[in-house]
Design a protein that fits this description.
It contains no helices and 7 strands. It is mostly beta strands. The chain has one domain (11-91).
């Protein structure tokens, strides 16, 4: 068996993706940048892009913490209802 890995990017997508993107029916994205300081936690809104409601079909709360000064070093913690047909989109 050969496994193929596709890069998911280094941070959460910051613009609305088309429905059925990122290997899921409801792609999650946010137009809010992450926190500026290391150790800072920020609660942001994450939106769902799907065929039913477009770019902002639903909104979830997402906690983000910056772990270092690297542009991509964030940890995302989902605060809403867990669902298997939605997933995060990454970008470079």
């Amino acid at each position: 068996m050969v496994l193929t890995f596709v890069s998911a990017g280094i941070r959460l997508l910051d613009r609305c993706p088309p429905p059925n993107s990122c290997g899921t029916e409801g792609a999650l994205w946010s137009d809010v940048p992450g926190p500026d300081r290391v150790g800072e936690v920020q609660l942001i809104n994450v939106f769902v892009s799907d065929n039913v409601g477009g770019c902002k079909s639903a909104t979830y709360n997402l906690g983000i913490i910056r772990c270092s000064n690297a542009d991509h070093d964030f940890i995302y913690r989902h605060e809403g209802d867990a669902t298997c047909n939605r997933g995060y989109c990454g970008t470079l």
